[in-house]
Design a protein that fits this description.
Helices cover about 40% and strands about 15% of the residues. The chain is an alpha/beta fold and about 300 residues long. Pfam families: Peripla_BP_2.
């Protein structure tokens, strides 16, 4: 028995002594094949505040030489809130500034950079790493890509494993149980929401709220008020700054279940709409926010 135990301990120690798993190749979210180069890129332009967050979390901020403007108010900002040189706004960049910074890697969110500018950057010979995961579960894996290119594979793997485990725990804890018909209101005039495939909608679904938005091919479809009413929507989620206005608007419809149960609810949309670690970490708070209405009996619709 002692020999068996000793053998098990030696086997465990051998496993712990193995080098950390290091990603060597992958396909990015535009299908581009990648392999870790012998000389790692050291001058990164990172387009998307959530992607900047991920690079910072890996301890690789020193590699960033340029970003898109992340200030909440428009203006001619030369430095981002994260302290990096600004090369453009969301959706567009200054190619002159990019050339001046001589990057050897551009990390970008495809919908945040026009196809025309993507083609121009590729013609400059700058490698473009597209990050746009289609599921919440795919988000932690993108950390491994960045970690491999930054020489931070151990940190990236540990963080990816941690975030993936937290997501599994959130699903196990919050997804079972009563579900609500819900509407995530991005804006009121015009009234639009997010498609069911959007990462924010996936997070809301994880929390037990089924979107009433019809299947759509665009990320942010315009929705008729009548569609929200006909779906007998039980909860409406809206950003905190828009909460008072949304509450006044929807309470006019006395037959709407969400109005009857006072379920026009403010959520942290700044965190939810930042589709990286911020979104993943906002899920437990979102689920806790909607839980009181999930636990209530269904509200009958007044005749």
């Amino acid at each position: 028995m002692r020999l068996l135990r000793r053998g098990l301990w030696l086997g465990l120690l051998a496993l712990l002594a193995l080098p950390a798993y290091a990603l060597e190749s992958w396909q990015d979210d535009q299908g581009q094949a990648w392999a870790v180069p012998k000389t790692l890129p050291s001058r990164w332009i990172v387009l998307g505040p959530h992607l900047v967050d991920m690079v910072h979390e890996l301890g690789a901020a020193e590699r960033i030489v340029g970003v898109q403007d992340d200030h909440p108010t428009p203006g001619r900002h030369t430095r981002s809130l994260s302290g990096h040189a600004v090369v453009g706004q969301s959706g567009s960049i200054s190619e002159e500034r990019v050339r001046a910074l001589a990057p050897d890697l551009v990390v970008f969110w495809p919908t945040g950079l026009s196809p025309v500018q993507q083609r121009r950057l590729r013609r400059l010979g700058v490698p473009l790493l597209a990050i746009a995961p289609e599921t919440l579960e795919a988000l932690p894996e993108r950390l491994r890509w960045l970690g491999a290119l930054a020489g931070r594979a151990p940190q990236a793997n540990a963080l990816a494993d941690q975030e993936a485990a937290a997501l599994v725990q959130a699903r196990q804890r919050y997804t079972p149980g009563p579900r609500l018909r819900g509407f995530y209101q991005v804006w009121q005039q015009p009234l639009f929401s997010l498609s069911k495939q959007h990462l924010v909608s996936q997070a809301i679904s994880l929390c037990g709220v089924d979107s009433i938005v019809p299947d759509a091919t665009i990320e942010a479809p315009v929705i008729n008020v009548e569609a929200v009413l006909l779906a007998r929507t039980e909860i409406i989620l809206v950003s905190a700054p828009e909460h008072a206005r949304a509450t006044a608007f929807w309470r006019r419809f006395s037959r709407l279940p969400a109005a009857q149960s006072q379920a026009i609810v403010a959520v942290d949309d700044a965190a939810l709409t930042r589709p990286g670690l911020s979104l993943l970490r906002a899920i437990p708070a979102l689920c806790q926010t909607v839980m009181p209405w999930r636990n209530r009996p269904s509200v009958p619709v007044s005749p």
